[in-house]
Every structure is written in structure tokens, then in C-alpha cells.
Amino acid sequence: MAHLQSLYALSMLLTTPITRIELTPYLLVPLCCLCLTGISYYTYAIYAAFKFLSKDTVIDLRFHPPVSILKPICGFDDQTYANLASFCCQDYPQYQIIFGVQDLHDSSMEVVKQIIQDFPEVDIQLIVNDRTLGTNRKVNNLASAFARASYEVLLLADSDVRVGSDYLQQVVQPLKRSEVGVITCLYRSLTQGWVTTLEALSTSTEFHPGVLVSNQLEGTKFAMGQTIVIRRSVLEEIGGFKAIANYLADDFQLGHLPAQAGHQVVLSSYVVDHVLPSRDTMVNALQRQIRWLVGIRVSRPWGYAGLIFTYGTLGSTVLLLMTGGTFLSWVLWSLTLIIRVTMAWIVGVRCLNDPIAKAWFWLSPLRDVLSFALWGYGFVGNTFRWRSQLFRLTKKGELVALTSGLSTRIKLSPR
After folding, report:
1. Are strands 389-393 and 228-231 parallel, antiparallel or unpaired?
2. Are 181 and 265 in contact, with CB atoms under 8 Å apart?
3. Can you give the pLDDT at residue 65?
4. Are residues 47 and 171 in the same domain?
5. Is the pLDDT at 398 greater than 50, yes or no?
6. C or N terminus of the chain, fewer CB within 10 Å?
């Protein structure tokens, strides 16, 4: 009885005579909960960001194990040469770079050949191999490159990543501890044009806060494709690239499987640059984000469902509109937006030094509207395009090609 009286009192506080919508406590309470959970999440993300910033990174210049850098290649844009060249300018004593590509006529071939010609002092190899290990073409290229890797320490990085000359020396440092099996990095986006700017804003002010919260709560249990450092022995222990050859979220699995096997996954303090296409269409950008969201839903279904509690801006706005603008709803709405924007600034600007976040962090609440719509679609959509090919994702996380190219599903034994 007391519980019902409390709900009724809350509804009276939020509802005014000018409201034409009849609100019940059972509708108001969930909206209030969304506001409060959103505020709590934003606040904790700010705390996690400060903890990340406070980490002391000690660089031991005497620790520099030889590294094999594996670069999967498929297609190129006007930034590809600069991205690849940045890995050839490392202030590091011993490393090799192995480019893996499936198609001898791939448009990236001339760029890679130019890289080899321009950096003769670096051990660079180009491997062309059309073998199909699984439905994920990127993993096929990585497997081909891995066959020529000479060293125990492997570093995987996508072709759209750009780094500084101190990158290798910094990211390998956690390997001094034997319990560390995988290292991954946060990233900031470099782009031009409003389409990819919206995507980059979501990454720095929405995705990365979630990464920092997860890292603070339970440690990092996954990896991100912008940088994955993994010991050869750890990769072989989880079954090699064959174990992830049919997964869409191959980078997630390269952190998840080692974590399940008892190895520590470390989030490096080094932030890499992720170069988005400078000229892209809204359709391509949405397809890319949908593919990413579907992959998250399959990889971490409960975590994906729980994202509803991070949309405090939408919950507070709906509450404000449905109550007709009562005093308490205005307070909740204002508080939610202030903390949301503060989180966007601290993570995007302070942690990542992201140029897009610096200019547009204040638009993050509006970007939440699009993110919420894409999140909802992620529950019903299992098909997406990846480099002009149509795929379907099964409930088990297997990639099935629906258009020309790879037309069959390759089943692997689960680990």
C-alpha cells in the first residue's frame, strides 16, 4: 500500500493540469529510471575517464621485443599511403611489416608496392594469397600474413589506422608482465565532411565511454581492430585465425577468447588515429554503423540490451514532453544534458584529444537520437553490406555471404 502511495505521489509531482496525456505511475517510473540510470552511467564514465588519465605509463627503452606487424589490405582511398607509411617510420630497433591481400588485382597493390620502394630499410613483405579460411575476408588476409611472421609478438592493425613514431615502443610495454596476452588501444577519428563527422562523434562520445566503463568495472575482455598486440603463443592457444575466421567481430574475439583462457587483456594509454573516408555517403556510413552494432549484439547480447540504460537524454526528453514541462521534469532534463555533455567533453577531448569531439562535443545529445534509432534496428536486422558484398549474421555469430564471392558458410567448432 505504501508503495502505491509513493508512486501516486510521484505522478502528482510530475503531472500538471495542462498535461493532456493521462500518465500513470507505471509509465512515469520507467521514464524516471531511464533518467537516473543515464545520469549514473554518465557520471561513472567521467570517473572511469579520470582513472584512465591518471594511469602512469613508464616507458622502458630497454624493452623492445621484435614485432611482426600484420596488415590486412583490401582497397584503398586517398589516405591509405599516409596510413601505411606511418608504420614504416617507427623509432624501434627490430620489426617487420607483412601486408596480406587476396586479389592480385586489388586496387591497394600499387600503394603497397610504392611503400616497399620508399622504405627499403624496413623489412616489408607483400603476401598475395586467395585461400579461403572462412567467410571473413579480413581474417583470411591476416592468416596469409601470419604465415610469414618471424617473431613471437604480433601486432594487428587495420589499414585505416595512422600512428606516431613512438607507437611501437609504447604499446608493447605491458608485455613485460607475463600474464598479459593481448593489448588494445582507444582511437580518435580523423575525417572531413558532415556524414563521417556524425559517425566520429558517436565513436568518441558514446562508444569510448562504454569502453572505459567496462574497463573500470571488469577489466577489458575484448580488443579493437585499430590495434591488437597478441603473443603468438596466445593466438595459437585459442586456435589461431581459424577460430575466428567466420566471425564478423574478429577483433572482439581476439580479446575475448584469450581472456576466457585466462590471459590478461590490457587497454593501452596510447591513442591511435582512425582515418575515416573523407568522401562518404550517408548510406555507406549507416551500413558501417549497422554492421558494427549487429556484431556487438551477437557478441554481447545482454550488454547490447543494457545500452537502453545509457540513453538518459532520450528518457529525460520524453519525460519532459509527456509531463507538459513540470518543474521536476525540467530539472531532470537539464541535469541529464549537462552531465551528458560533460562526459562527452572529458572522454572525447581530455582522454582522446579527438578533433571532432573538440569541435562538436556539445552536439552529442542530438547524436544520441540517431544512435538510439540504429540501436533499435540492431535488434531486428541481421543483414548488412561489407565492402559491397551482402552478408547475413546467424544467431551463432556465423557470417553467411548472400551475394557473389563467398557463398557458403564454413562451420567451425566452438571454443
Report:
1. unpaired
2. yes
3. 97
4. no
5. yes
6. N
Residues 281 and 195 in one domain: yes
How does pLDDT run across 250-293, given as a tens digit for each residue? 999 999 999 999 999 999 999 999 998 777 777 777 878 888 88
Strands 95-101 and 123-128: parallel
Instruction: Write a three-state SS string for the chain.
Output: CHHHHHHHHHHHHHCCCCCCCCCCHHHHHHHHHHHHHHHHHHHHHHHHHHHHHCCCCCCCCCCCCCEEEEEECCCCCCCHHHHHHHCCCCCCCCEEEEEEECCCCCCCHHHHHHHHHHCCCCEEEEEECCCCCCCCHHHHHHHHHHCCCCCCEEEECCCCEECCCCHHHHHCHHHHCCCEEEEEEEEEEECCCHHHHHHHHHHHHHHHHHHHHHHHHHCECCCECCEEEEEHHHHHHCCHHHHHCCECCHHHHHHHHHHHCCCEEEEEEEEEEEECCCCCCHHHHHHHHHHHHHHHHHHCHHHHHHHHHHCHHHHHHHHHHHCCCCHHHHHHHHHHHHHHHHHHHHHHHHHCCCHHHHHHHHHHHHHHHHHHHHHHHCCCCCEEEECCEEEEECCCCEEEECCCCCCCCCCCCCC
For residues 15 and 162, membership in a common domain is answered with: no
> Cα–Cα distance between 384 and 393 in angstroms, integer?
8
Cell numbers found for residue 269:
594509454
Is there a contact between 156 and 230 (Cβ–Cβ < 8 Å)?
A: yes
Same structural domain for residues 240 and 366? no
224-246 residue pLDDT tens: 999 999 999 999 999 999 999 98
> What Å distances lie between residue 368 and 119, 203, 265, 349, 371, CA to CA?
44, 11, 29, 18, 5
pTM of the model: 0.86
User: How many separate domains does the chain show?
Assistant: 2
**Domain limits at 327?**
2-53+303-377
Place of cell 570517473: 47
pLDDT score at 299:
76
Cell of 137: 575476408
